[in-house]
Design goal:
- With 142 residues, this protein is an alpha/beta fold.
- 41% of the residues lie in helices and 18% in strands.
- The chain is built from five helices and five strands; from the N terminus they run H-E-H-E-H-H-E-H-E-E.
- A five-stranded mixed beta sheet has the order 3-2-4-1-5, sandwiched between helices.
- It starts with a helix and ends with a strand.
- This is Phosphate ABC transporter substrate-binding protein.
- It comes from Dyella mobilis.
- Keywords: Signal.
Amino acid sequence: MTSKMIKWACALALAAGAMPAFAGIAVVVAAGSSAPSMSKDQVSELYLGKSSAFPGGGSAKLYDLPESNPVREQFYQKLSGKSASQVKAVWSRLIFSGKALPPKELGSDAEVKKAVASGGTSIGYIDSSAVDSSVKVVLTLP
């Protein structure tokens, strides 16, 4: 192996180590919720404003992580193949037309988990490493 190849391999290894590692993304509801597991399509319809129906009845109350949180970008990419900015544009059109209200943005996984755990028809997503007994996972995005 040449020194140039070794430098390239080291640079790749350092870059990979600098990237945040996620165990996955968990879509969560309150632990006591009767909501069943959800499909990727069902969650996508909620988070793209195509539906507001909470599984098990009622209107879903959606929670989102802040734009600065890397889990948000991964969530939208894995869920819909769209970037968070593309999803924001979708919501801008829906808001302007008066068709829907966007998910409420909270500051962290802990805040989303607390809001969802309070019950009702709340749904959110968090890094799966943050899941505890206060919430029930209805979908996992690897």
